[in-house]
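Give me structure tokens for this 186-residue protein.
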Amino acid sequence: MSDEPQRWSQATVYPDMWVNPDEDPRDNTGVSPEGELATLQDYLTHYRLTLLMKCEGLNAEQLARRSVPPSTMSLLGLLRHLAEVERDWRGWILPGGPPPKLYGEGDADFDGAVAEQAVVDAAYADLAREQATTDAVLAEYPDLSARPGKDAIAVREVLVHRIEEYARHCGHADLLRECIDGRVGQ
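Here you go.
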């Protein structure tokens, strides 16, 4: 017997999809966004939803499971890490120094991702809060070439880096989820 989970997908229409197209909250069957800002925001929203989809339906132990030793990466750690990333990138465009870390220095976002429901609940709340706060700050700069903050980083660069970070970690989330319960899909 193997400890490896059997691969499976919830989708019935296309077996390589996470969910059936008519159930996908990232539905993008309509007209594509108009303009660069709307396009970047659409991609960011898509990846944020993808990460949450990869975590849904799992309990605290499963979310905290480190699936590829010796890595400390887990789905719960990714939620915490991306809250930290939102906070960090926001610090690049605000005046003054960077905001304090949420979880501590080093790999505290991953190391502290333990199988406790309170930690899970806090991670989801932290991520939602940090996303909303960063979104609100960036909304003050509709010109993507604006360079606020002490290092004069373009708003466009902040948006692209956020997309890149979520996209990269959604790939990790795919593998982590498959190791946990075998679920695969787009």
